[in-house]
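The protein record quoted in full:

***
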Amino acid sequence: MTAPQTRSLVITRRFDASAERVFDAWLDPATARRWLFSGEGGEMVRAEVDARVGGRFTFTDRRDGQDVEHVGEYLEIDRPSRLVFTFAVPLYSEQYDLVTIDIRRLDKGCELTLTNEMSPEIFEEWGEQTRGGWTKMLGALDALLA
């Protein structure tokens, strides 16, 4: 049996905020709903986070009258340095990606590295859009924490 192959995209961004603030922004639903998974012109109508290993999250963004759910399960939570979760947008695909967030303290602020692993088919169809989405979201997080 061979292991399933995946393709990855990696995005690195520095923040002037502490590693703890950046990490907590992923798991606090009141904060996360302000920057995570919101599309342009969308309205976040549901943000549920069960922040424990094995816990699940659901964020629902309403876009042009259509609800788009973003769902996943937390696989690893090591505050403030590492968060690993599965991720899917069932409206577009039933396949789950694997997302790893690594946060490294710097003398001033921190550096976040996001790795999104997905099947080659999903990467081919959605890879660049996903990279653009994560880049925008991390920019929104940076603005929120400034």
About this structure: The chain has three helices and seven strands. The longest strand covers residues 66-78.
